Amino acid sequence: MIKFFQHPHLLVIVLLLGLRTTCEQSIGTKDGIRCLEKEREALLRFKDELIDDYGQLSSWGNQKDKEECCKWSGVLCDNLTNHIIQLDLHGASAPLGGNISVWLLEIQHLKYLDLSLNSFNHRRIPQFIGSLGKLQYLDLSDSWFSGEIPHHLGNLSELQFLGLSAYAGMLTSTNLDWLSRLHSLRYLRLSSVNLTMATNWLQTINKLIQLEVLYLSDCHLPTVLPPSPSTFNASNSLYKLDLFGNDLSSSCVFPWLFNFSSGLSYIELGSNKLQGPIPDDIGNLLSLSYLSLSQNQLEGEIPMALGNRSSLSYLDLTNNQLTGTVPDLVLSFSLKNLYLDHNMFNGTVTQSIGSLYKLECLGLHSNHFDDIITESHFFNLSQLRILDLSYNPGISFDFSLGWNPPFQLTEVLLRGCKVGPHFPTWLRTQTRLYELDISNAGILDTFPDWLWELSSNLDDLNVSHNNFHGVLHDFSSKFSTNFRTIDLSFNHFSGSLPILPPNASLLDLSSNKFAGPITNLCNETNSSWSYLDLSNNLLSGQLPDCFANLSNLRFLKLAHNNFSGNIHSLNIRFSLHLQNNSFTGEIPTSLRNCTSLAFIDLSRNKLTGKIPTWMGNTFTSLVFLSLRSNEFFGSIPSNLCHLSHLQVLDFSLNKISGAIPKCLNNLTAMIEVDNESYVSSFSSGLQSYESASVIWKSNEREYINTLRLMRLIDLSSNNLVGDIPAEITSLVTLVGLNLSRNNLSGILPASIEQLRSLDFLDLSRNNFSGGIPAGVSQLDQLGVLDLSYNNLSGKIPQNIHLQTLGASAFEGNPDLCGLPLNKTCPGDEIAQDPKIIGNASGMKDPKEEEDKLISDGFYISMVVGFVFGFWGVCGTLVFNNLWRIAFFKLWNSSMDWLYVKIAISKIRLKEAFHKFMNSLRSRFFVSENVPKQEK
DNA sequence: CATGGTTGGG
Predict the structure, then answer these.
(1) Integer Rg of chain A from CA
(2) Beta carbon of A163 within 7 Å of strand B?
(3) Of all helices (H) and strands (E), which one includes residue A203?
(4) Residue nearest to nucleotide B4 (CA to C1')
């Protein structure tokens, strides 16, 4: 009662309602109107507090012609009593907002209430909904409610259907006791409700003995031990169970699962932490038609008990560590979908698959199957639509030249299989294709012209990493209007650049032998193009004017060609790579409009002029800026210090003069561990296309994954004067600093010891004087130090790490003394300990030199970055083929690099880390070419 | 029965 008085408006409403009820005959129609006046009144008041931007409730009103509320949209009245029994106000196409008024309580006979897919702006679910005691159906899913689910819903004892799924854990329930009172519940959906604290979830579910359908995906369910069989009282009616994405273990899930009688027909357990073998008991689930155990850590073979059951039509075991052959017995004739991708299966699976005459989708991607596939394998598979045999290096094909397959495929994915040497002619019969990937498939052939006109639905075409040669003819009039991606990269295509589909978004023609000008790019208005990579070809001439019209272009990569002339009229959103061409003139002012650029590489051209001051104010998201090896002059504008996301600044090999700006400490990305701008580009997926070449310790290398950890300032080989501003030493995450080959002078700042992440420090060939600050010996991540050819004096700090860097780091400073130089300081004894000093002559053995390419410190920090970065992006990649492939490529290249690194590393960390990396690698990308681990 | 959204339906 006290609570009641805290809400005086409730009192008023109840009094009003009471008055009406007594004054009114509830049954009987007036002028053929069935609608009960008090219910109409309540609905109008209910509507008053809603926001109906889309006019979903425009039929609700108090005008004379709208009197019949039983005809209002979403309203259903009972045929006999005329009471409103159903309100279907789901907002799939026209979401409602605002507030859910307590006037709803006046619709006391309501059995069905659907408010799903609306937009209630983080409001709480009203407690009073628990007072609509006649409700049998309640759906509040995905309506932007947030907070704790009110336990009052537990009063709805007639409820059979309850949908409360939420967006990304906006709703929580810390204790599910309220749920156990809903004895009539047949359907329950709490997907994405945060149930971290609901340790009683399993007990609660077990009390719902009428339950038929249960969705608990992405709920953060805590792992609990299943109840002991004596207390177990599970529903016999459950037939559909979805526990996707909960990190549940085998010991939690399986014992529980197998206590249900044989009625379960749909089991989704993907993305959990199921480990060990698939239990034989799975064979007791006699009604099983859908089983997904994907994305777990299951090992061992497919149990025979799963074998040949007439009901199974969908089996997904992808992304586990399953081994062995796939026995014929397991392959049920009723299977329509069979996904075994990313496991370690071997043997010949394909013969038995040939009898699965209902098969529509077959995924065997990334296994170790060994087989020669012939026409007879496919004889019965007339329903097949999707065929993915990618990354089974042991699979090859033997089809007769005129083979006419019994199926019409929509997806053909044969990446990394032995398809070649000739282009598979049977594809010519497949006229419904929308995705074709025959990349890296050993094809040595010319490109078949008919492919361009094969299917009007072709979306994605990837023939990269083969040996295609010859000229591509102009088939622009035959292009599929659906083209999204075309990847012809890493082949030997020659001749002039073909006319490209105007509606595609990703076009990669890089690493071929296309030659000559690219003026025919401008034949169309290519406003859909988002990614254009023509790098590593023999293209030349000036850039055509049309680039400014490519209004959606995020990536433009023209690097490593022979383009010349001025760069003009560009309109790029994210990444611009023009390095290694012969561009002349100044940085174009049109770049001022490209304010969202994150990567600019103009290195190795013949560009000139002053570095524009507007750059610092324009590119607020810039991460990478290289003007290396051009003919820029003038001083470094201090405006550049506004580039707070900048990680790589490379102005080396120019004619830049003046002093180093003191404000460099404003480059905050070089202070912070994680760069917001970079991380956001990473999570948007853009990053998976990005790479950048960095000169790292005299070697050019392509940084892809690890780029996000790189922090580099390279101003070497210019005409800079003055001293090193102490401000630069506040860039504490800086990994590389190269100021060599300038005319810098003064003493080295003592605060240099703050640069604890520094792996590479080159100050050689300047006029620095004074002593080497003792703090340099604190830089224990340093892999390369070069202070040679200055006027430094005094004693080299005696520190084991510094001395192992070699004498060459200090030579050319006549007044320096002490180890590792051969020159003893005045008054010092010669006290060499060969074990510590090693080769004091300054000569390093080549192996050691290689080791320092990337020092241990950078390598460790990469691991840290990897752990954080990888997981964030992996989930989105797994399901998007394009990104997945791109990422996979990057992954492999970075892994190769790591293995090289590890092989030559002398650190103890090696073993532990190696295990860790291997477990990751085998879990997610069980793939070929895993280098042997060193003992 | 109840799978669509400003997000996955694996």
Answers:
(1) 34
(2) yes
(3) helix A201-207
(4) A92
Mean of pLDDT values over A674-696:
57
Residues A439 and A441: their CA atoms lie apart, in Å, by 5
Q: Measured from the CB, is A265 under 7 Å from any atom of strand B?
A: no
How far, in Å, CA of A856 to CA of A66, rounded?
77
CA A223/CA A391 separation, integer angstroms:
35
Question: Is the Cβ atom of A93 within 7 Å of strand B at any atom?
Answer: yes
Dump pLDDT digits (tens) for A631-666.
Answer: 999 999 999 999 999 999 999 999 999 999 999 999
The nucleotide whose C1' lies nearest the CA of A161 is B2
Is there contact between A289 and strand B, defined as CB under 7 Å from any strand atom? no
- CA distances to A157, A198, A214, A327 from A185, rounded to whole Å, are 9, 19, 10, 41
Distance from CA(A242) to C1'(B10), angstroms, rounded: 11
To the nearest 10°, report the CA torsion of A49, A54, A59, A60: 0
Answer yes or no: is pLDDT of A762 > 60.
Answer: yes
Rounded, the Å distance between the CA of A715 and C1' of B4 is: 54
Which residue, counting CA atoms, is nearest to the C1' of nucleotide B7?
A: A167
Q: Among all chains, which residue has been given the structure tokens 């010891």? A: A753
A212 CB contact with strand B at below 7 Å = yes
pLDDT at residue A307 above 80? Answer: no
For A241, phi then psi, to 5°, come to -135, 125
User: What confidence score (pLDDT) does residue A576 get?
Assistant: 93
Helix (H) or strand (E) holding A485: strand A485-487
Q: Which nucleotide is nearest to A292 (CA to C1')?
A: B10
Confidence of residue A690 (pLDDT cuts 50, 70, 90): low
What pLDDT does residue A353 have?
83
Give the DSSP per-residue string, A546-580.
GGGG-TT--EEE--SSEEEEE------SSEEE--S
Question: What is each CA distance from A742 to A650, A658, A730, A873, in whole angstroms?
Answer: 14, 10, 22, 41
In sequence order, which ranges of A244-395 are alpha helices (DSSP H)?
Answer: 250-257, 350-353
**Token duo for residue A727:** 């401000």
Rounded to whole angstroms, the Cα distance separating A312 from A836 reads 68
Identity of the residue numbered A414: L
- Between A713 and A864, the higher pLDDT residue: A713
What Cα–Cα distance (Å) separates residue A861 from each residue in A159, A300, A471?
54, 35, 46
Q: Is residue A764 over pLDDT 80?
A: yes
Which residue is closest, via its CA, to the C1' of B1?
Answer: A187
Report chain B positions within 7 A of protein CB atoms: 1-10
Alpha-carbon distance A451 to A39, whole Å? 65
Query: Is there contact between A292 and strand B, defined as CB under 7 Å from any strand atom?
Result: yes
User: What is the residue type of A915?
Assistant: K
Q: Specify the nucleotide whose C1' lies closest to residue A294 (CA).
A: B10
Count of all residues that appear for chain A in the document: 935
User: Who contacts A219 (Cβ-Cβ below 8 Å, separation ≥6)?
Assistant: A190, A191, A192, A193, A194, A195, A201, A246
Q: What is the dihedral of CA A897, A899, A901, A902, to 10 degrees?
A: 160
Three-class secondary structure of residue A687 per DSSP: helix
A52-76: average pLDDT: 92
Using the CB atom, is residue A629 less than 7 Å from strand B? Answer: no
CB of A239 lies under 7 Å from some atom of strand B: no
A372 CA from B10 C1′ (Å): 31
**A237 nearest nt, CA–C1':** B1
Both tokens of A556, joined, read: 């433009």
